[in-house]
Amino acid sequence: MVTIRTDGGEVCVEPRVAVVGVGGAGCNAAGRFYDGLMPVDVIAVNTDRAALERTHADVRIFICRDVTKGIGTRGDASLGRKCARVHTEEIRDALRGHDVAVIVAGMGGGTGSGAASVVAEIAQGLNMVTMAIAIRPLTLEGRGVAAGEGLRALRSVCPGTVAVENDKMVEQFPDMTIQQAFDAVNDGIVRYVMKKTDDIAEAFAEEIGKVRPSEPNVGEGAAGTVSAKMAV
Ligand SMILES: Nc1nc2c(ncn2[C@@H]2O[C@H](COP(=O)(O)OP(=O)(O)OP(=O)(O)O)[C@@H](O)[C@H]2O)c(=O)[nH]1
Ligand SMILES: [Mg+2]
Question: What is the pTM of this model?
């Protein structure tokens, strides 16, 4: 939280942040925010029912029981996209009331690659400051082409999407198991997001400081008022 002084007194600025995990990797990474140091709401979106049930989240959105039979898309990004579109209203309802959306998804599978850009579109439609983090698969998984397509789709909606390389962790710490490397990448994402959301809170505070205190929108919901003016 950032506290700023205006002519009329103090204004506390605490943007409401939703971390949205999309697909298996995205939900694993987003789950790390649950009960963590950051006051965020965790929203988990997946086509895989069992994985979704294991995810630590405030809201779980199971997309497309009828289409995927609840077992994921098996790498089909067009299916992932379709499932997210069918559940647009549920996703929008979960996002509503937040100022910032942080979308996290693994690339190369079908759910994250296909559905993350749909979630980003919905968040932008609500005028939220929208940031996205795309986890690139390990080279040895042979999913590079699908991952590249997923990343392009996400960047076409959210140009500032940050790509995180699972390969980097494995190269740096060759003794780690793949699971340990994934967990370490997920923890790195939490640290990165903490830093970025602090920056966003400061930017909100600065924007609000420029608004005269007598203006009706300063105070509760003030972060939402300025979010539409900001880009990440
Ligand atoms: N950093 C990190 N990477 C992961 C994790 N789990 C999976 N991955 C990576 O993410 C890539 C995409 O996989 P998933 O997220 O499981 O795929 P999905 O989006 O669920 O898609 P489908 O299961 O095909 O519907 C994988 O190829 C892995 O490289 C995780 O917990 N952390
Ligand atoms: Mg999956």
Answer: 0.89
